[in-house]
């Protein structure tokens, strides 16, 4: 494709833009779980990359496979079988021993979850919990405590020095989420995986936590994979967005392009469900129906029972992946991939 394919309004297709050097490269990752009756495929052949310092969002309804993908990258779920390739800074994560992987999680990759209380020990002080990763690595108590304080300050935890010896129940929900972020960031990872990090918080607190994450990721050149069901919180944060449906990535593009020109009918449906400050509507639209269970996916395009644009072939022929002129990587027959 030549530069003459640059589109109107100054929009440059994603494939013509410079991408940062890949830090994480996932190729044809599939995730299976053995149930009593059958082997069920939770995630099917997903491929994507995350560059150094890049912020990428993985978006989809609950049950789409996004959290299970995040856990697979960190090898947190021993009940599932992983196949494909996951390379982090040139290392093949799927072939590392458990202890090598544990070291990787503590040092190079951090993760935060939706519910801060599930990550915090109610009987341990905040200071000790944030410092723990460093203590395990052999950092002295004094230095670990100082670095815990520095990262809590960086995350704008008020009166952090005084509160190092406080317990989780003495913090508000928003402050607890900052503490959990501090635990993930104190080891100075290169990649942070944040799985629905703000879902349990009210809208204003959610914005503040995301603004902080944005600030820190820029300052530290920290790559972030943000997992969320809410496309609304992604705008303004992510450089790139991947939309997942029923265990597959159905659309991927740079965030500005995906918001301006969503291609896949599912992405359009998700966007129509996001409240917008510039438009007043009586009722937000939602996508009719629910995603299929992983063990009961319909044939053809798995979105076809819910799709307003479904054609005859959609119920029998699975769409392949194609790149649209806007640079979207998309799986849909509307774009000509068979
Ligand atoms: Fe809709 Fe068909 Fe595209 Fe699937 S392949 S999203 S059913 S138009």
Characterization of the model:
- By secondary structure, the protein is an alpha/beta fold.
- It is built from ten helices and twelve strands.
- The chain has helices spanning 66-74, 98-107, 116-119, 126-136, 141-154, 160-163, 173-185, 203-220, 255-260, 265-272; strands at residues 22-34, 39-51, 55-59, 80-88, 91-92, 109-112, 191-195, 223-228, 240-245, 248-254, 322-323, 329-330.
- Strands 6-7-8-3-9-10-12-11 form an eight-stranded mixed beta sheet, with helices on both faces.
- The longest helix has 18 residues, at 203-220.
- The two termini are 21 Å apart.
- Bound molecules: iron/sulfur cluster.
How are the SSEs ordered, and which strands pair?
Blueprint (H helix, E strand, L loop, with lengths): L21 E13 L4 E13 L3 E5 L6 H9 L5 E9 L2 E2 L5 H10 L1 E4 L3 H4 L6 H11 L4 H14 L5 H4 L9 H13 L5 E5 L7 H18 L2 E6 L11 E6 L2 E7 H6 L4 H8 L49 E2 L5 E2 L8
Parallel strand pairs: 3-8, 3-9, 6-7, 7-8
Antiparallel strand pairs: 1-2, 1-4, 4-5, 9-10, 10-12, 11-12
Helix pairs in contact: 4-5, 4-7
Bound molecules: iron/sulfur cluster.
Iron/sulfur cluster binds next to loops.
Keywords:
10 helices; Rossmann fold; 338 residues; alpha/beta; 2 domains; 8-stranded mixed beta sheet; 12 strands; binds iron/sulfur cluster
């Amino acid at each position: 494709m030549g530069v003459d394919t640059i589109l109107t309004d100054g929009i440059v297709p994603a494939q013509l833009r410079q991408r940062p050097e890949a830090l994480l490269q996932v190729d044809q990752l599939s995730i299976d779980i053995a149930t009593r009756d059958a082997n069920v495929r939770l995630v099917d052949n997903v491929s994507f990359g995350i560059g150094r310092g890049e912020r990428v969002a993985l978006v989809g309804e609950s049950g789409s496979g996004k959290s299970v993908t995040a856990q697979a990258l960190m090898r947190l779920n021993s009940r599932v079988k992983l196949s494909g390739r996951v390379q982090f800074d040139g290392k093949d994560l799927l072939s590392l021993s458990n202890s090598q992987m544990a070291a990787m999680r503590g040092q190079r990759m951090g993760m935060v979850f939706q519910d801060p209380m599930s990550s915090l020990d109610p009987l341990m002080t905040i200071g000790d919990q944030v410092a723990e990763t460093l203590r395990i690595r052999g950092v002295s108590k004094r230095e670990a405590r100082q670095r815990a304080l520095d990262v809590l300050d960086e995350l704008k935890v008020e009166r952090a020095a005084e509160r190092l010896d406080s317990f989780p129940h003495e913090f508000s929900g928003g402050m607890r989420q900052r503490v959990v972020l501090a635990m993930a960031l104190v080891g100075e990872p290169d990649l942070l995986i944040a799985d629905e990090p703000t879902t349990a918080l009210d809208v204003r607190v959610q914005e503040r936590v995301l603004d902080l994450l944005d600030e820190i990721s820029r300052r530290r050149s920290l790559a972030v994979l943000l997992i969320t069901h809410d496309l609304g919180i992604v705008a303004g944060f992510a450089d790139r967005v991947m939309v997942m449906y029923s265990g597959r990535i159905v659309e991927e593009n740079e965030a500005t392009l995906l918001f301006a020109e969503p291609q896949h009918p599912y992405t359009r449906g998700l966007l129509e469900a996001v409240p917008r400050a510039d438009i007043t509507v009586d009722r937000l639209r939602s996508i009719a129906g629910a995603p299929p269970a992983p063990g009961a996916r319909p044939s053809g395009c798995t979105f076809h029972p819910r799709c307003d644009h479904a054609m005859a072939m959609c119920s029998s022929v699975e769409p392949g992946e194609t790149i649209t002129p806007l640079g979207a990587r998309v799986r849909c027959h509307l774009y000509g991939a068979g």
